[in-house]
Amino acid sequence: MPRKQSDSVPIKMKPIYDEITALTDSVCRGHLDEEYAQLARKMAAALARKRPSPLERGRRDVWAAAIVYALASINFLFDKTQVPYMSAEDLPALFGVSQKTAANKARTVRDALNAGQADPNWWRPSNMEKNPFAWWVSVNGLVTDARELPLAVQEHDSKNQKDTPRILHLNIEPV
To answer: What pTM was estimated for this model as a whole?
Structure first.
């Protein structure tokens, strides 16, 4: 299960955050969907909270394109079987940025946030059920789907986990 994400931004970074999210909101709401807009805001906020924030350096349009490009690659937006779908060339063009520039800066974004393909922390909520990484748990060293565990173990897990890592590790003692 993904960790809770905060939208809080340091006061110093608020004007930069506002510029970037105005761009991401416009593109996401106009060409993708509200989920991408919300995730872009959360990702921009996470980058704004970094010390030092990488958003302080560079063009705002490039950062906006990179954030949405990073989310697009995490959520497989560039896969023609996905809805919504957009090509890797068309997305950065909406920001007036080249595909190469967006892809390179998106790598910086993913590295800064330790985000990878299908990362549950940056996955579209409407598709969470389809994301196997969101449901992986390790029970006594064996990785399994949490939805397949007995209900009592699932309830124990949900009560005891505040910041859930990618793969939850449970040690269950035999009775």
So the answer is: 0.78
